[in-house]
Design a protein that fits this description.
- With 365 residues, the protein is an alpha/beta fold.
- It has 17 helices and six strands.
Length: 365
């Protein structure tokens, strides 16, 4: 993101377009369209939602902003630190628009991020920059790159400060608030507008703390959400947890967008470290250690794992982690089967019943 900003590109994120499709509950209209041209229903429903919408020549951006179609790219840039599907997704648009796809492929499943991992990714960044210089006909302005990294660092520290207000009891925010306010840290890193947004948001949170305003009245239980949001059920789930006087105080999903290893003094290597170190790119033991630290820090009473059918990279319920959390650490867990966008994988009745039973379990402890 910071490299593209430094070159002066206007950056568009298909991932956020897909999240918007999911939140509008129209993904099920588009996923079958992508399936029909060979994209499996078992792969990322962000990918199939977005490609399906493109093939139907439709976008929720039209209703929201009057934008009739997604923009035609000059280049596509992707980092596969989250999953392979991103590369396949961007490659689809590369073929459609006859545009080059530049990619960063960090080493995966890392327990610790070591110098040679950072060296590897830093070289890939330098290769990408060289290719972008050929396309634009301009040398990268190092001062602009440092400025973009400095703005990203400032935005990420403000974003972390916003999320960390939830360590207070009661919490002034919920996981659902985080999903709404995370767009700037995803799509506007490297820009002043993200810094301005989070300065205002953090000030509002500080005011809520000062006045003792809780996100959930009479907060009884505090829960950690592990996995992707169910975009088409944000309101329904948030209302159920309010009724249960339970606050989802933290999540790996929102906190994964904290990149505080960046430094403008060493922009390329610090970007390589920050984007290789992300939660989803780490080993199972590293993820487990991270979640345990967060449970303690946010004083959570239990964990809800969202096992998203089409997003195994962001689902951590498949290799025994919920059982280990319960048996080794005494932390109550619940696993909800579902999906980020494909609501055919989600049952309202089953989720409601399971959440109610989980809270009753907490009451009996």
């Amino acid at each position: 993101m910071e490299v593209l900003v430094a070159f002066g590109f206007k950056v568009y994120f298909p991932e956020n377009h897909s999240a918007l499709i999911g939140a509008r509950k129209i993904a099920d209209d588009y996923i079958p369209v992508a399936n029909a041209v060979g994209y499996s229903p078992e792969i990322c429903s962000y990918l199939t939602s977005d490609i399906g919408a493109y093939l139907r020549n439709e976008t929720p951006l039209k209703d929201a902003y009057g934008v009739s179609s997604i923009p035609k790219p000059d280049v596509l840039a992707v980092n596969t630190n989250q999953c392979r599907d991103l590369y396949e997704w961007f490659s689809f648009f590369g073929r459609r628009f006859d545009a080059p796809v530049f990619s960063i492929h960090p080493p995966k499943y890392l327990d610790e991020v070591e110098e040679h991992h950072v060296d590897d990714v830093a070289v890939q960044y330098e290769d990408m920059i060289a290719q972008l210089e050929k396309i634009t006909g301009e040398r990268l302005d190092e001062a602009k790159l440092k400025e973009a990294v400095a703005l990203s660092l400032e935005a990420t520290e403000l974003w972390k400060g916003f999320l960390d207000t939830a360590v207070h009891v009661p919490s002034p925010l919920t996981f659902f608030d985080g999903t709404i306010h995370m767009a700037p840290i995803v799509v506007m890193r490297g820009l002043q507008v993200a810094v301005d947004y989070y300065k205002q948001l953090k000030a509002e949170m500080d005011e809520r703390l000062e006045n003792g305003i809780a996100a959930v009245d009479d907060e009884r239980f505090r829960i950690y959400w592990e996995g992707m949001p169910v975009w088409g059920r944000l309101r329904k789930l948030s209302e159920q947890f309010v009724d249960l006087r339970t606050c989802l105080v933290a999540s790996t999903y929102c906190n994964s967008w904290v990149f505080d290893d960046m430094t403008p003094d060493d922009p390329i290597r610090s970007m390589a470290l920050a984007y290789t170190k992300v939660f989803v790119n780490r080993s199972e033991p590293a993820k487990e250690r991270y979640i345990l630290d967060e449970i303690k820090r946010f004083k959570a009473d239990g964990i809800i794992f969202h096992d998203a059918r089409t997003c195994p990279a962001n689902s951590n319920a498949s290799y025994g982690m919920p059982a280990r959390m319960m048996e080794d650490h005494g932390i109550p867990t619940l696993t909800l089967d579902g999906d980020l966008n494909d609501l055919r994988c989600w049952s309202d009745e089953q989720a409601t019943t399971n959440i109610e039973a989980f809270i009753e379990q907490l009451e009996e402890r």
